[in-house]
Automatic annotation (TrEMBL):
Taxonomic lineage: Bacteria, Pseudomonadati, Pseudomonadota, Alphaproteobacteria, Hyphomicrobiales
Protein name: Sulfotransferase
One of the Pfam families matching this protein, by short name: Sulfotransfer_3
InterPro entries in UniProt: P-loop_NTPase
Gene source species: Bradyrhizobium guangdongense
Length: 275
């Protein structure tokens, strides 16, 4: 991590894996799907809390070094000389801690209109008709309504990510964020990547948007959700009809709070398609 660490966070099914697949074409950068670092980070925080009676022997400096050591040790072994962009939806909820560990860190938040996030997950479940997904605890008896309702709860896959993004968007560290719209990434990848590089203070790179590669087949199969992290070779935008019942789709139609200018009180930069 000699060249620093930044973070990719935001909403699920909103382009974080695609963005990482593009960025990793740059030999100066390392990016990927959610790494083990986030879960190790959260587990260590729990182990150092008062839930552990021996935590009384761990002072704040030690806590800082132990948490930072997860990043140092993991990425020193993997990519010691690259700038790291670590991915996890929970990072938006951990900014007060992250900025103390990495004072120069910035966060790229991938966003997408929420109805289409729900649609994307439902479409993936239906494509894997003979698999039960770990997203829903491998349960067999459910419907599109129970699945979407579960995703939307505050501890659900989508609901938690939205709450974490809200926390960061209106928090004291909002100046570290940039929001990247999925539609902008797909329709205008070159312009979008240029803005991301400018935000990070990195020199721009000529990416090949016709030949993007990324796979995590073993991971996806392990959670019963093949193609969860599959990235199409060519970056493009595909228009489609939703598979959700109208009332479910419309339920989330106004949840894109980041698209309301009056609510952007910290002037967070937001990349959306032109026109």
């Amino acid at each position: 991590m000699q060249n620093g660490v930044h973070f990719i966070s935001g909403l699920p099914r909103s382009g974080s894996t695609l963005l990482a697949a593009i960025l990793r074409q740059n030999p100066r950068l390392h990016a990927g799907m959610s790494s083990p670092v986030g879960s190790l980070f959260m587990a260590l925080q729990g182990a150092m809390s008062r839930r552990n009676e021996a935590a009384v022997f761990i002072d704040e400096t030690q806590k800082r070094e132990l948490l930072k050591g997860i990043f140092d040790n993991y990425y020193h072994a993997v990519h010691p000389s690259k700038m790291v962009l670590d991915t996890n939806r929970a990072w938006c909820s951990k900014l007060p801690t992250l900025v103390k560990l990495f004072p120069e860190a910035k966060v790229i938040c991938c966003v997408r209109h929420v109805p289409w996030i729900m649609d994307s997950i439902e479409r993936l479940i239906r494509q894997n008709a003979f698999e039960l997904s770990g997203i829903f605890n491998f349960e067999s008896l459910n419907t599109v309504y129970t699945r979407v309702n579960r995703l939307a709860t505050s501890d659900g896959l989508v609901g938690f990510a939205i709450d974490a993004l809200r926390e960061a968007f209106w928090g004291e560290n909002a100046g570290r964020l940039i929001l990247v719209g999925y539609e902008a990434l797909c329709k205008e990848p070159s312009r979008t990547l240029d803005q991301i590089y400018d935000f990070l203070g990195e020199r721009r790179f000529a990416h090949d948007f016709e030949n993007v590669e990324y796979e995590a087949d073993d991971f996806d199969l392990g959670i019963g959700t093949p193609n969860l992290h599959k990235v199409r070779r060519k970056v493009s935008w595909i228009e489609r009809e939703t598979v959700l019942p109208p009332e479910l789709f419309n339920r989330f139609a106004n949840d894109a709070f980041w698209m309301v200018p009056e609510l952007n009180t910290h002037n967070v930069p937001i990349i959306v398609p032109r026109g």
